[in-house]
Amino acid sequence: MAVSARRGAPLTPEEIHSTALRLVEEGGVEALSMRKLAAVLDVNPMSLYHHVANKTALISQICQTMAGRLALPDKPGSPWQERLRDLAHAYRRMVHRYPSLWAYIHTHPETVADHQGGIWDVLFPILADAGVPEEERTTTADVLHGFVAGLVVTERQGHLGRDDPAQADRVYETAIDMIIRGLPRP
Amino acid sequence: MAVSARRGAPLTPEEIHSTALRLVEEGGVEALSMRKLAAVLDVNPMSLYHHVANKTALISQICQTMAGRLALPDKPGSPWQERLRDLAHAYRRMVHRYPSLWAYIHTHPETVADHQGGIWDVLFPILADAGVPEEERTTTADVLHGFVAGLVVTERQGHLGRDDPAQADRVYETAIDMIIRGLPRP
DNA sequence: TACGTAGCCATACACCGTATGGCTATCGCT
DNA sequence: AGCGATAGCCATACGGTGTATGGCTACGTA
Predict the structure, then answer these.
(1) Is B179–A175 a contact, with Cβ atoms under 8 angstroms apart?
(2) How far, in Å, is the CA of B35 from the C1' of nucleotide D18?
(3) Is the Cβ of A148 closer than 8 Å to some Cβ of chain B?
(4) Residue A2 domain-assigned?
(5) CB–CB of B160 and A181 under 8 A?
(6) For residue B49, what are the contacts with CB-CB under 8 A and spacing of at least 6?
(7) Range of the domain at A89
């Protein structure tokens, strides 16, 4: 199969994805270039294109592997308020781990498929328990997701806890309180 | 002064900013390049650098001119709920007008100075009327801004009103309701 | 043994931002 | 009037980007 002269084994999509994700974690999305990635993998840049359609497809794929790493908590017995809070915290943790990639997703929504798997499977039952009627759950989920996403972006921008990370935690908590307070219809 | 051979008059920063903003409105931030801008202005690319420090400075400047175009409503007599709603709508209108530039700001917060002028001067009195104690107003403003920004981004991504723009209006309205409901402490 | 093909690579193209340095026409000053 | 400073413009060049094109090698299968 004409394996690379410099490397022993042939490339695998997994190897490409993980190293690309590592590059993004280290230097942001703008630090990921096909040439640099190829250099790290010790391969000619064009060899990547035998395993990846193009750069945007690659980013989309590593976005999905990142989303797959979202640690989803759900304690079915607990009240919906607590579960919603846990979910918001899990979301926050993930954004803090991959801030740059997350910003990319926010401006390129097409990279992530719609409303299936991951967060949504956890969020919908929570909304059901909170008394949101079924026909409103999709949009409510969208609104809540928008709120939390905007909140985390704001935090990433340095506001809410400019100096003190403990204060950021507190502000995040009270913001979640606000959401929980606002969710039930009067 | 050795005016351009091809143009009659010398370049002005205003001309550069407005044409750059036009390019961004038409094709997004990624469609703005110094070379294209120079071509539109019928000038050598390097001539731009006598009026603009570099590309990011240029973008930062057109961000500010955009922010200056935010139509800020404020009816001091009305209740804070109504004024908050008006502000959220003004924000939404602006994001819809310059979606790409807005996304850029969200991922490059350094482009816009902090907490002075524009929105904040209007938002702070509203929060005061809503009974938010002074020492919490900054973070509360940040949280609310995060909420609304995330909401609009979500809308821009096609959710909340996928098909029907009227439905998007309705959902936005109820989301603002939710914020207003959640703002006062219990 | 012959062939298809999977994997790799070298080259090239068009684009990008911008550092460098030189040209010219105008202004203020002597 | 003469002259230096300077504002505005431009040509060239460097290092970077994504990727189209086409050719090479070595393996699996028939």
Answers:
(1) no
(2) 18
(3) yes
(4) no
(5) no
(6) none
(7) 71-182
